[in-house]
Design goal:
Shape: rod-shaped
CATH topology of the largest domain: Helix Hairpins
CATH class of the largest domain: Mainly Alpha
Order of helices and strands: HHHEHE
Helix content: over 70%
Distance between the termini: 10 Å
Largest sheet: 2 strands, parallel
Strand order of the largest sheet: 1-2
Number of helices: 4
Number of strands: 2
Bound molecules: zinc ion
CATH architecture of the largest domain: Orthogonal Bundle
Structural class: mainly alpha
Strand content: under 5%
């Protein structure tokens, strides 16, 4: 009985370790999902900035063409008043062009910052993706090892105790799978199941004391007297 309890603990430990690792990998997956979404946002932002930059460059080109046209037109003018008016128009367009140039510079600086941030995040993401890949491989190896141990357990259990009948072994296996960790539970001193706290009938208590391993009505684990 003690050896069966020991094997039960080993199986429960393996199940818990596999569960913890799966949870860990899932959490890292979620974190990487957030990083990827952020990267997408930055990429979109950069695209938007580049589009705006392109529009401003076209605007600047248009204003510069207008200035060149005005300079040509000025050569055709005869009166000083007309020439002054044209100079005023050209000066206004030059101010407009310089404002567009500053906006272009600002956009370029911003685009540069976003690109830098984007590259930084990209390298962080690829680093973490690589690390996750390694951990996944390790987890798969561990899962295979655990599966091999678990596969050996029934045979070991069969060797361990000839007193444990095939029927009890089957009941134990099914109780372990139902409970998710341990297949055995100790009968508490006050007549409760120590795993789930269910109050046990006198029949169940005496069955447990007699080593019949009756299942707990609350959690399905087999009840063993300490
Ligand atoms: Zn119970």
């Amino acid at each position: 009985m003690r050896q069966l309890a020991e094997l039960d603990r080993t199986a429960a430990k393996l199940a818990r370790a596999a569960e913890a690792r799966a949870k860990e990998l899932k959490a890292e997956d979620a974190a990487l999902g957030v990083l990827r979404a952020e990267l997408d946002t930055f990429t979109q932002q950069l695209k938007l900035l580049q589009a705006r930059l392109h529009t401003r460059e076209l605007e600047l080109k248009t204003v510069e063409q207008q200035i060149a046209r005005n300079e040509d037109q000025k050569l055709q003018l005869k009166s000083k008043a007309d020439m002054d008016r044209m100079d005023g128009q050209i000066a206004g367009r030059r101010i407009e062009a310089s404002a567009i140039e500053s906006a272009i510079l600002e956009s370029m600086e911003l685009a540069e910052r976003v690109e830098k941030e984007l590259n930084g995040r990209r390298s962080v993401l690829s680093e973490r993706e690589a690390r996750l890949g390694v951990r996944r491989e390790k987890a798969a190896t561990e899962a295979a090892e655990a599966a091999a141990v678990l596969a050996r357990l029934p045979a070991e259990r069969a060797d361990v105790s000839n007193r444990v009948s095939a029927q009890v072994r089957m009941a134990y296996e099914s109780a372990r799978q139902t409970a998710g960790d341990h297949g055995l539970s100790a009968l508490g001193g006050e007549g409760f199941c120590s795993a789930c706290g269910t109050r046990l009938t006198p029949q169940l208590q005496s069955g447990a004391r007699a080593g019949k391993l009756p299942p707990c009505p609350g959690c399905a684990r087999l009840l063993a007297a300490e």
